[in-house]
Write a structure and sequence with these properties.
This protein is mainly β. It contains 5 helices and 34 strands. It has a single domain, classed as TonB-dependent receptor, beta-barrel domain (Maltoporin, Chain A, Beta Barrel). The strands form 4 sheets. The chain has a 22-stranded antiparallel β-barrel. 51% of the residues are buried.
Amino acid sequence: MFFKSVCVATIVAVPSFAVAQSQSSDYQFAQEDEIIVQAARRAIPVEALPNTVRLIDEQAIRDQLLISTSLVDVIGSRVPSFSPSRQKLSGAGESFRGREPLYLIDGVPQSNPLRNGSRDGFTIDAAVVERVEILYGANAIQGVGATGGIVNYVTLSPAANGLGEIRAEAAVTADTDFNGDGFGYRGVLTGLKDLGAIDLVASAAFETRGAFYDGDGRRIGVDGTQGEIQDSQSLNLFAKVGFELKPDIRLEVMANLFELEGDGDYVQIAGDRATGMPATSVRGQSEGQIPTNTVNTLSASLTYDDLLGGQLELQGFYREFESVFGGGTFNGFFNTGTEPAGVETFDQSSNISDKSGAKLTYSHSDLGIDGLTVTGGLDILKDDSSQILVQTGRFWVPQVEFTSVAPFVQLDQMFLDDRLLISGGIRQENATLKVDDYVTIFSSGSTAVGGGEPDFTKTLVNIGGSFEITEGLTPYVAYSEGFTMPDVGRVLRAVNASGQTVETLLNVEPIIADNIELGVAFERGGFRANASYFESESAFGQRLFSNAQGIFEVRREPTEISGFELSGEYDFSDAVTIGAGYANLEGQSDQDGDGSVDEDLSAENISPDRLTLFVAASPMPQLSVRAQLSHNFDRSFNDAATNTDFDGYTLIDLNAGYTTPVGRFDLGVQNALNEDYTTYYSQSSPAAVNRDNRFFQGRGRTLTLRWSTIY
């Protein structure tokens, strides 16, 4: 039977290959233990979910943390259609299938589309993440923001055995030259306990990171403007309490407090692209406030498993986000219009975004029609965002208030003994954008802009189907639409023509991404594979471009992205598994307005093609080893600036672990061959290629030794 049951609470159901992760497996189906996919808007098993889903479980996360403690890097290592990491605090230019992913923590949105500072990948420590759920392609399952897909961080829950446990770990990281300032340290203490009617999780994680060194032994240049993860420290405090009010009624309250702050111990020495010398760092004190990410996420969820024969889930949430960027005497900042001639004023910006909202979902599968599940619900979201200049108190982006009310309904019908699924749904986004009258900063002409309250109503549909032709072979096809707002902040701060009002600015119109996908999943014996092809179009999309000062601005124009992905693995035995993944992406836009979508999307909008390979083995119960390869292929762009062409590179990572009576010891080796390479963003982004201060190398060979135990 293809699906054990169908109880789908999604707004967009894309029938496809649902995969789970094991200790040594990248593409494995769900194991005997039932896996629930929270990102689908209802707690349903992965084998009953007709969506393209990748699940990265806790063990796979722990394995990857030996290579990098960034959750974004964890995802990138397992999903070839994710962009290569910049290895910086900023994720600008990092994309999923050429578009923006929506990041969530237990369903609470972390992304900031209204003023996208590209910091939403660093909002929680991996120590409290039980698994990562990745839903591919544009969709409206979780509302605004998922034009590329969804990444949901599911937090820890205690085992339902009443025993409880305390987890402790300590780790040290160093480059292979063991430079004194390159050492990093990490400590985590987590408690989990199920008391029956009440269950508890509490965790504290602290990490301090040293300087990073490239493959040639040079200290990598710090990005004093966008922010760094090298020479930084982070603290994550987490608590979750569950209450069983009745056997079928559960209340859960979660709080996560996260801060990542740079130490500011280094300043950059700009590189020289003409001679091939990358940017490096020397000891020094940076000016102004140190770049930080401060993110507090709170949620409360009530689940009623048997309300009038169906399941009800109600979630309320609040999230506050502040990211401080580095500063300088940039043309866009220093001139307030009051300085004496020749005087430049230092300044820096901070993005602030507070979100609150509620999600109501009700699903029923006993309505008198065999195989039919009906799901309905209502989402409410309020987002207040702005960008201020910290030193002078000016608003670079005025206060923007976005509200959305979105009802939805989804129908899923099974036929032919659950081998055939037909799925369809509709969601209506009713959104309002409110901005008061404001004046741009001096660099945009101190232009007076009239406020307004434009509203948008968009109806989003989906339809799809899958059919199990024979046991283990299932093709699927689906069409879905995703909804997001453009980076309104970049639009509003760049207005420099008089007589403009927010009501009449076409550039604040929503982005609708249409996604069509065809694929096939296969499983036979120890072999598992999936192949899919997709096309994604936006008639009025968004493309980032860099102005003369290297600051990103927004252009609204038609965009088209297509690609295919292949993945597979084979179990040679219970102890050895090999696997591979490949993603090919092409993207174009209409940059000259002639109606032809024929100009390549640049590197900050699309990733290179990528191949991943791995082999994992457990030669004995207490020993495990893994080797993985990631190859980024060359990419050329049909722009006039041929210096944006990308020279690919290959990275190999290794890890091994051994369990002893006093705990488990793991060793990870990042970039095991010590490849000296320039990152994709630094090589090919138009915002970087003509700027020697954005000529960054990737990290060289790095060792991590970790001890962990469970009491």
